[in-house]
Amino acid sequence: MNDRFEISLLLDYYMELLTEKQQDIMNMYYNDDFSLAEIAEINNTSRQAIHDLIKRCDKTLISYEEKLKLLEKSNIRKTKKNEIVEKLTNEYMLSKELVDDIDEMLEEIINS
Amino acid sequence: MNDRFEISLLLDYYMELLTEKQQDIMNMYYNDDFSLAEIAEINNTSRQAIHDLIKRCDKTLISYEEKLKLLEKSNIRKTKKNEIVEKLTNEYMLSKELVDDIDEMLEEIINS
């Protein structure tokens, strides 16, 4: 399996591009922490079949990220936001209150 | 065909999810303004085949937008950016120079 944390982040961005069944199983494995054996039992199939499905979905998610780079772009936005906040504080010398307000508004932008 | 302008916007977001051949033909049609007949001749196929491929790709792009909403989210970010700029000008009474600087930094965020 690939890095659990990275895959669970990619799931946030590309979940909707998986089939409903794939979404269910990926959610059980990465978000609800079910074991392969548990997921296999719930889905009335083998541990190996679930393992293969998850591996295939991992690859699909990684391939979407290689093409659309949504996670990478989101990280760039966060970095830029922090740079702006720092600049407003240290270079433009705005009050902490005002910077906090702007920070909150920027947070809304990068989360939308 | 669907709305040309909307499809050309969606192409900006989802182009990478099309095959190379689809990308070429969609580019010729939506960005380089070739006619169906011209694209058919270049690709050594029928006008009808090109028409069908474009219609299929239109549907694919619309379906990606329904799932990922990247265009919608980008528009939300632009609106939020304009709201921030207006608020900094009219509510926080920052100088035009400072607001312009912040505006420029925000532009970088929403374009990344």
UniProtKB/TrEMBL annotation, chains A, B:
The keyword Coiled coil applies. Residues 54-91 form a coiled coil. GO terms for molecular function: DNA binding. Keywords: Coiled coil, DNA-binding. Might take part in the signal recognition particle (SRP) pathway. This is inferred from the conservation of its genetic proximity to ftsY/ffh. May be a regulatory protein. Belongs to the UPF0122 family. HAMAP family: UPF0122. This is UPF0122 protein C1I91_17185.
